[in-house]
Write a structure and sequence with these properties.
- The chain has 10 helices and 9 strands.
- By secondary structure, it is α/β, with parallel strands linked by helices.
- It has a single domain, classed as Metal-dependent hydrolases (TIM Barrel).
- The strands form 2 sheets. It has a 6-stranded parallel β-sheet.
- The longest helix is centred in the first third of the chain and has 18 residues.
- The radius of gyration is 18 Å and the shape is globular.
Amino acid sequence: MFGLFKKKTPLPTFAPLVTDMHCHLLPLVDDGSKSLEESLTVMEAMKETGFEEIRLTPHFATPRYPNDVNKIKNLYQKFCDDVEANKGERNLPRIVSLTGEFRIDDGFKGYADRNELLTYHFADPKRGSEKGLLLIEFSLNQRRMGLEDIVYQCQLDGYDIILAHPERYPYFGSHSKLLEQFKEQGVYFQSNILSLDGFYGEEAQHKAFEYLENGWVEFLGTDMHNVVYGEALRRASTNKKIIKLLETTEFENRNLATSINNVSNDNQ
């Protein structure tokens, strides 16, 4: 009888997000995971901290990672089979789709012209666009000329745009005019959870919270790469500011979650 009045065990920190929409756990295709075992270990940390499902987003970046889309699709299918065959008793999030993180560089137009831009869609039918949500990134070193024109052309071509980790670009300040312009154009922003915990330094951490306070950030992602990131995610899950943020802010991750909406329209 008295058990009815016991305090409920709190959900893991990132449970409100349900899905992680940015991670690099497809082995040996970019600077992310180097093996199946490493991916499995990292996925355990993701499940432990609250993620029910993940979407793989390998880099498509020229010249460093000029990945072939068809090859990546084949590797993705093999990876899903390997995870299922080797997970044993491990508690892992579901792998629900393959998308991509496309860098705006000299190779980007080729992917676009060949209709090879892998996207995801909002499970909420009231949201999304003709060709779905396209995750893009910029150079982490210097600003490319004409970024605004390329982003606008993608929108004209029927894509909704998510800009990955705007806080990590050193050429954008806390009150960047170009980022403000992107928001006026309807570009979504995805900040890295680890940025909020200082993993990338104080400047990125400060800007991440500034952009959140501006109301600019619709998505949070782990940008998970390896076991070091996995341990950092566990530490971030105890950060009181992050816990409070997730208790008071609703992010769009849930509208991507197949476990909530039972819908999956992503390009496979």
